[in-house]
Amino acid sequence: MAKGERDQDRIELLQGTLDMLILQTLRWGPRHGYGIGQTIRAGSQDLLQVETGSLYPALHRLEKRGWIKAEWGTSENKQRARYYQLTAAGKKRLATEHSRWNQMSAAIARLMNPGKSEGKA
Amino acid sequence: MRWPWVAGKRREQEIDEEIQAHLRLATQDRIDRGESPSQARASALRELGKAGPVKEDTRAVWTWTAFERLGQDLKYTLRQMRRSPGFTAVAVLTLAFGLSVNITIFSLIGFMFRQPLPVKNADRLVVVLQQRADREVPQGMSWRDYQDYRAGIPEFSDMLAISFRPAHLSIEGRTADRTWIEAVSGNYFSMLGISPLAGRFFQPGEGERQGADPVAVLSYDYWQSRLGGDPGIVGRSAAINGHPFTIIGITPQNFTSARWAIAPSAFIPAAMIPGVFPGAESILTTRHSAAFKVMAHLQPGLSEAQATSAVQVLARRLAREYRPDYPETEAFVLPEMLARPEPSTSRFARFAAIAFLVLAGLVLFIACANVANLMFSRAVARQREIGIRAAIGAPRRRLVRQLLTESIALAMLAGAVGMLLSYGTGPLVAGLAPPTGDVPVRPDQSWSWLPSLYTLLISLAAGVITGFVPALRATKVDVHSILKGAALGIAGRRHLFRSGLVLAQVALCVVVLVCGGLFVLSLREMSTYGLGFRTERLFMASVDLGLQGYEPEKSRRFLDELTERVKALPGVESAAIASSVPFDTFRENRSAVSADQLRARDSSDKDEALEAGVNRVDPGYFRTIGAPLLQGREFSVQDRDSAPRVAVVNEALADRLWPGQEALGKQFHWQSQSDAIEVIGVVRTGKYAFLGEAPRPFVYLPIAQAYTTPVTLHARTAMDDPLALVPALQSVFRDLDPDLPVYNVRTMEEHLRSSAFAFLPLRMGAFLAGAQGLVGLLLAVMGVYGVVSYSVSQQKRDIGIRVALGAGKLDVFRAVSRAGLRPAIVGLVLGSAAAFGLARLLAVLLYGIHPANIPVFTMVVSVMLGVSLLACWLPARRAARVDPVAALRQE
After folding, report:
1. B66 touches chain A (CB under 8 A)
2. With CB atoms 3.0 to 4.6 Å apart as the test, which of B4, B387, B647, B722 could cross-link to B539 if both were Cys?
């Protein structure tokens, strides 16, 4: 997620992916915004850095669609924070996104590595 | 309810807090990893970037949510509409029909009953009416009554009186116009708060003494149309019925009269009536005739009920004091807006208005039911789409809202189309408006926002009604079974809802059609029989010799000459003179109704006196009008003023005065006169004042023995268009008296069609009920068709199997049409019962037919049955052609 790449198509794609990643992160339980960002970063071994400017709009968008819900809580070191949590619709959504992602990445992989896929076939 | 902007404020604070929390967490994290607090905070801030845009972007997610959603729904709706233009067109047109009927009726009624007059304190303006025990309809009052009321009712801040009269008006020696003027109390203009366009109005004290102030105010319309808006007219002289007046002022353009839609040509003080109008010498002193319409301003804050009880007390006192001139009398006040178009008949007008609103509502309901039906079948067709949307997490609320948005958008579109339609049909309806003879009127068609608002509201209501039930039912889906592509979740098993709709449609349609049929039949019945005379090819024209200043002898000679010359015209079979025409609209001409008392001679018993209508006619009358005598002879030229008094009576009068006896040769007399009158002929009882009237005793007198003015020339012609007589007749009148205004030139059929007392109500009823009935029929057929088509599409597989097993076409037809025919037949039965009930209520408006008219009911029921069968047959035929293999493979 390099800076300056604010091309419209790019953002669309990234946005969808970010949504999926957030949903995926929340599968393990409620988390606050900072925590989600850190989890994605740690989980991708620092490859994916989620910018705050993308993270919070995405969280609120997901909340608005009813895929996640939020409530205020207290963190382990007694900080007040807004915790997000998956809803039933969010779980369904995640499943759909996940399978779509699988299909898409497989398709992209086939396209990007034609030799390999031919070899397999 | 949460308002978007309030919610937005709260949201903003929350986002702010959330970002602050983020900073604290990030800082703490860095401190935990060993950075110094200040360094940690600085890098956390850096990482956050500019907090402003973050907050803004996050906030933007929520901005205008409600509108955004609406926008999305609308966009989706438009896409749906474009995708199925056929459905959209049918739904929009169906609703547009139903809405247009309602808009038209509402505009008509709103225009008539809700538009205030352009006068001061129009909201407090009331009409004061007296209902005398011996009269059928309420009236105004006499001048003396008016003065007593004005002095004796503190509940009124002021009262005015109007006597509306035909007059011959000429300006500075020009040929007189026959027109109508208002003779008014001196406070008329000041009470109404009108200021003159030019000149002045009546001054205080002016018009108080009889005959003292010959001043006239001209109306704007007359001044414009007849005098070309001549600016120098004020101060010049005018003649009213040949008497000199001075023109003192012109009314402003927006004012016509204190009475709605009436547009008199001039205004004079009421105190001028006696010298100027023949036969009105005692109008200011008598209590006998109710010549004045009286209007008043209620004191602020008082109700009509309070004023009514006050006038009631006074009316009873006057009736006690002035018997026998004054029979038992009830008085009451009506708000001016509800007293339209004519105070004495306003009760009927309001009844009719409500009846038509209800009928129009029924039509709209039928239309809504139909579109609901269409929406429902489409919702079923879109089940998979709805299922998918439900599956991806759209809550049911959202789906219902989407479907409702669609139906409301449809209805709004239909409202716009309906408004256009009712604009288009406006002239058609205006053609039905009560005409006014030669009375000048100015329909004030100023624009009002009310019809538009009403359109918006009923369109919205129609949208919700049509969309709500289908939306609720369609979204009650079983997501899994739909996605699996299995049998459809709803309605496949039962279509109670749709069947119910079809049932209601058919039933309502039967009701409307039966009413329409009864009106039409009644109209035909009436014009064929029952009037007591023949209506066809009868030409009429009126003159008022009294207003022209003719003495009785001179007018007798004039009329004799006139009839002789008219009889000699080519194409004229016979001609006659009569003082009144049946069903005349204006009371002033209806001496036939306000008849003198008469009683059988040699009978001292007061109870035997009875009221009779009277018409003064010349010898050719019965032949001309086509009312053959049952007994005795017609009048002849020998029945002169000097000859013994004679009369022709109708059967109703003969039966009342001499029950079971021969009336011919009997004598009677008017209560006020001593001369006995001998009955020389009897005619069949006809209709005289109202179509719905009970048999009315009626007397015909020879006009030679009972001079009167004005009179109407009747000519029976051999021409299909009697009006072709006009040019020849004009030259006859020109020869006899070039200055005499001739008015109300019309045929009898025209007159009957347009008289509010004759066919007009029936005609309006027949037209409106007929139009509504046809729309209803169309809609009901579409409903039946929809149900059967749907049932065919649902049972394709069944049908396929049946055909495969060797079922014939008839079997298939029977199987699929059951879904449509069963509710249709139940609807027919229920509708007939309801129509019968309603027809009995309408019986007062019907003439000559029983409410349970077998032909009408049979016709309506068989037509409905026929079209229902047709509506079933079309889709059933398609079903019978089902290819069993294809049908089975589809699953």
Report:
1. no
2. B722
Report the top-level CATH class of A8-115.
mainly alpha
Determine the distance in angstroms separating the CA of B20 from the nearest CA of chain A, rounded to an integer: 9
Residues 8-47 of B with CB under 8 A from A: 14-15, 17-19, 21-22, 24-26, 28-29, 47
| Beta-carbon separation of B22 and A96 below 8 A | no
pLDDT at B599 over 70: no
A7 Cβ neighbours under 8 A, 6+ residues apart: none
Residue of chain A minimizing CA distance to B27: A34
Q: How far is B26 from chain A (nearest CA, A)?
A: 7
pLDDT in tens, B753-804: 776 656 666 666 667 667 667 767 777 777 777 777 777 776 777 777 777 7
Q: B24–A79: do the CB atoms touch at under 8 Å?
A: yes
Q: How far apart are CA B11 and CA A60, in angstroms?
A: 10
Name the 3-class secondary structure at B632. Answer: strand
Mean pLDDT over B20-34 rounds to 87
Q: What is the pLDDT of residues A16-38, one digit of tens each?
A: 688 888 999 999 889 998 889 88
Closest alpha carbon to B108 in B425, B539, B556 = B425
Q: How far apart are CA B408 and CA B418, in angstroms?
A: 14
Taking all residues of chain B, what is their mean pLDDT, rounded to a whole number? 79
Question: B53: which chain A residues are within 8 Å (Cβ-Cβ)?
Answer: 53
Number of H helices, E strands in chain A: 5, 3
| B145-201: pLDDT as tens digits | 999 999 988 889 999 999 988 888 988 877 788 888 999 999 999 999 999 999 999
Smallest Cα distance from A53 to chain B, Å: 5
Q: What is the dihedral of CA B196, B198, B199, B201, to 10 degrees?
A: -20
Where exactly are the structural domains of chain B? 4-63, 134-327, 348-527+760-890, 545-740
DSSP one-letter string for A79-119: -EEEEEEE-HHHHHHHHHHHHHHHHHHHHHHHHH-HHHHHH
Would you kindly state where each structural domain of chain A is located, as residue ranges? Answer: 8-115
